[in-house]
Design brief:
- A two-stranded antiparallel ribbon has the order 1-2. Strands 3-4 form a two-stranded antiparallel sheet.
- It has one domain.
- It has about 280 residues and is mainly alpha-helical.
- The protein has 9 helices and 6 strands; from the N terminus they run βααββααββααβααα.
Length: about 280
């Protein structure tokens, strides 16, 4: 790796903040998938779409570019290609959403889980390297193939485990623990892919096209984070899967009690007609 590259310009701040954002996005995504499993029809689709934005948008994409804030190459400014950067965010959300729908409607079977994990992992890796390709600098960039392959493998395994979590993890304490594991996996994939990169600055610096990170990335990450916060408020205000299950059990018990009381009630004895009493007199 070139000595001109620095992944931690701001010290531990950017990796720590990136990890926290990845955990928050993963935690909310798992909570939304749990809500989706307790829902049906269009409501289920909406919760899964929200989970895709949370995991793919905040847990992966925002994490990636927060970490990139600490990336610096000596001797050249770094700019970002706006369409490619936006496309990388769309890729992250779409592939995560596709994996979630495959697993959610796959009935918990192994084949949809493995297929969704492979598709999502390859998509996450594509998002990472598309985001890297969106960086413009006055330098030559190359990658170590073995390390790139390792980062893709980490992405596939991490995606498969994350999708498995969406099927099995329901309680808040387990969701929090799973989110911490997912954050480690996403950060591990990111920095493995970053360390596969070698940069050789050009001797004569040329003008670098593109948008500055503070002018472009920060507003975009803020928008996605606000969307995530809105979905978090929606989840907080919505009943959990356990609450929905408890309500359904309570309604079932009340209905059973009503039917039992109706069956046990004696048949009413009809009162004699007044006209009949008058005739007998």
């Amino acid at each position: 790796m070139s000595s001109a590259v620095n992944h931690f310009t701001h010290g531990p701040l950017t990796p720590a903040l990136a990890y926290v954002m990845s955990c928050i996005g993963s935690m909310l995504g798992l909570r939304l998938t749990a809500q989706a499993h307790a829902s049906r029809g269009a409501s289920r689709v909406r919760w899964l779409l929200g989970a895709a934005v949370s995991i793919g948008g905040t847990g992966i994409w925002v994490m990636h570019f927060i970490a990139m804030m600490g990336f610096d190459v000596e001797g050249t400014p770094i700019r970002y290609d706006v369409p490619l950067t936006v496309a990388s965010a769309v890729v992250a959300i779409v592939v995560v959403g596709t994996g979630l729908f495959l697993v959610s409607y796959g009935g918990g079977r192994v084949l949809p889980l493995l297929g969704g994990g492979l598709l999502t992992g390859l998509g996450v890796a594509s998002m990472h390297y598309l985001g890297m390709y969106a960086m413009n600098m006055s330098a030559h960039v190359s990658y170590d193939r073995l390390t790139v392959a390792l980062s893709v493998l980490i992405a596939v395994v991490a995606a498969t485990v994350a999708l498995w979590f969406t099927l099995r993890v329901k309680r808040p304490i387990w969701i929090a623990g799973a989110a911490l594991v997912m954050g480690v996996a996403v950060a591990g994939m990111h920095y493995t892919g970053m360390f596969a990169m070698s940069v050789t600055p050009h001797h004569e610096g040329a003008p670098v096209a593109g948008a500055d990170a503070l002018d472009f990335l920060v507003p975009l990450m803020t928008v996605i984070s606000l969307i995530t916060l809105t979905m978090l408020l929606m989840v907080i205000l919505s009943p959990s899967e356990e609450e929905l299950h408890e309500d359904a059990e309570l309604l079932a018990r009340l209905e059973l009690r009503r039917r039992t009381s109706q069956q046990q009630a004696p048949y009413p004895v009809p009162a004699p007609h007044p006209a009949g009493r008058a005739r007998r007199r």
